[in-house]
Amino acid sequence: SELVLGGVNQNHYEGCLNWHDVQSHVKTDEKGKASAAPSELWEFALADVQVGGESMMVVRDVTDFDDDFYTLDDDDHTRRTLKKERPPASYALLDSSSSFLIGPTAGVGWYAFYNDAACLRYNNFGGSSIVDCLDDEGFDSAMMDCDRPLLSLDFVPYGSTTNSDDSDIVYSFEKDDLLILVDTDTVVSSGISEDIQFCLLRVMSSPSATGWVLGADFFNKYYAAFDYGNRRIGLAPAVELDDDICTDDLVLLGNSGLNGVSTKSASNNTQSSSSSHAGLWISFALIVTILNFGLLYRRKWKKKNLENIFDGGLELSDLDLDDDDDGYGELALAEDVETMEPARMEII
């Protein structure tokens, strides 16, 4: 992960940033007058939440879906028609402190049910029991067969402004994003077959949630830019390295690009970057010059001290001072003196 202040790093996202206004809430003052005010959190409005491309915001019959994915365990082995209303999507809140995705109890329950997950509720004694995924009280976690397909969980933003030509923006989570392998013994203790390798669904429900919290799993897949000055959120698919540059996002490379000032042109950015590079080279040359003067003074000091040590016994010209940058100076005696191992003197 990387934190960039005052700009963005285009090498770590694909394409251009898609911008979403921070959602506004209706507030009432002391006189009862209502007005719209921006949220204090980084959240944006959602037009829809979908399961495998099918909206959760309309009433659907379960028979509309593929039998391979949805099998119900009713005693009479017959299909039942589901008439429970899906909750409105409302909003998506970006929160890097949350490990999983968190949503309303009904919405998460529908997603678990559509994927034929086993929903568990824990008790105060460390045990758990299987409950109906559509139970109004919700559940604590959901498990499913790791080998089975998983329908995607898709978030469709509302009122987006995009820099790209594609206006159909959807933030999707697939099987690799939402499943994590769990200890089989833990699942067996819950009464689920031990012959199946189970995975934990990284989506949790909250009875108090009216929208969706997009946690660390979202940041693992999407690059996020928070524009405080313009009260908006920029999102794009995250990548490790992408050399393609979005020209529309060049205005964000400056120090003030994400602080309400977005009028700099690409040429100004280039000129500013060149000036910065020139300043760095001047600083580097100055440091090298200072180091050279220091080394010259150090060598003169070393010769002066050696003259004091060899007071007339040897000429200083008979010595070979081998500066090998290892922190020591080697004293090798001249050829007309009996050969001996070089002495080593530490240079401080």
Produce the secondary structure layout:
Elements (H helix, E strand, L loop, with lengths): L17 E4 L2 E5 L5 E5 L4 E9 L2 E2 L35 E4 L6 E4 H10 L3 E5 L5 E4 L9 E5 L7 E5 L3 E2 L8 E3 L1 H4 E3 L2 H5 L9 E4 L1 E4 L5 E3 L1 H6 E6 L4 E6 L28 H44 L10 E4 L4 E5 L10 E4 L2
Parallel strand pairs: 6-17, 7-16
Antiparallel strand pairs: 1-12, 1-19, 2-3, 4-5, 4-6, 4-11, 8-9, 8-10, 10-15, 11-13, 14-15, 18-19, 20-21, 21-22
Q: What is the total number of structural domains?
A: 2
Shape: globular
Q: Report the span from N to C terminus.
A: 42 Å
Low-confidence stretches: 58-89, 259-282, 305-348
Structure in words:
Mean pLDDT is 68; it is low at 58-89, 259-282 and 305-348. The chain contains 5 helices and 22 strands. It is α+β, with helices and mostly antiparallel strands and 348 residues long. The protein starts with 17 loop residues before the first strand and ends with a strand. The longest helix has 44 residues, at 266-309. It has helices at 105-114, 175-178, 184-188, 216-221, 266-309, and strands at 18-21, 24-28, 34-38, 43-51, 54-55, 91-94, 101-104, 118-122, 128-131, 141-145, 153-157, 161-162, 171-173, 179-181, 198-201, 203-206, 212-214, 222-227, 232-237, 320-323, 328-332, 343-346. Strands 4, 5, 6, 11, 13 and 17 form a 6-stranded mixed sheet that branches. A 5-stranded antiparallel sheet has the order 9-8-10-15-14. The chain has 2 domains: 10-28 and 35-263, Acid Proteases (Cathepsin D, subunit A, domain 1); 270-346, no CATH class.
